[in-house]
Amino acid sequence: MPRSSSHSRPRPGLFWTLVAGVVAIDVITKIAAVDLLPGQRVPQNVLGDVVRLTLVFNPGAAFGLNLGPWSREIFLVLTVIALLILGRLYRGTRPGDVLRVVALGLVCGGAVGNLIDRVRSPIGVVDFLDIGFRDWRWPTFNVADMAVSTGAFLLAWVLWGEEDGRTASTAAATPTVATVTEHSESS
Fold first, then answer.
1. Which residues are catalytic?
2. What is the pTM of this model?
3. Which residues pair with 40 in a beta bridge?
């Protein structure tokens, strides 16, 4: 049956608000980082050396993953494919499954935020959040990365719960030897 009524759709207002919100915050913070930070790889302490703002242009993917001279193009294509898959997951979301909508909105918003950087800048995605202690640093990241990571974690949790629910439903519907024996003896 086609999804025609607003009651059968999986909360499009929430989904698109999250996507637009993540993209807006990501773009604004990246512009601010480029305009206000002193230069590449010059850390600015925010909370001691634990939280710093450090401008980095990442030509690869998360955590500096680089696939050579074609990284930008490869990650552009992979992002578009991922967004198509996420769109399909969204369309398959049951009405009322708010956590899944939130997870997909966060991942899509973050993916679009980094996609915008890949399209507009050949030097790479703007990263600027630098967390760690002394020489032990997490790879520099941005708002889009936080949204993708949080959304991916939530989505994995939701999908895992759906799989557990299907397994439990299948187990409850599958007759056991004892049930079949009891049923045949009572006949």
1. 127, 145
2. 0.82
3. 55
Pairing outcome for strands 51-58 and 44-47:
antiparallel
Structure tokens at 61: 């993917």
Distances (CA, A) of 116 to 27, 79, 112, 123, 144: 8, 11, 6, 13, 11
Sign of the CA dihedral running 117, 81, 153, 140: negative
Task: Locate all alpha helices (DSSP H) within the chain, ordered by sequence.
Answer: 12-36, 71-91, 98-120, 143-173, 177-186
Q: Is 40 in contact with 124 (CB distance < 8 Å)?
A: no
From first to last of its 187 residues, the chain has per-residue pLDDT tens of: 444 444 566 889 999 999 999 999 999 999 999 999 999 999 999 999 999 999 999 988 877 788 888 888 999 999 999 999 999 999 999 999 999 999 999 999 999 999 999 999 999 999 999 999 999 999 999 999 999 999 999 999 999 988 766 665 555 555 554 444 454 455 5
Q: Residue 51 and residue 132: Cα distance in Å, rounded? A: 7
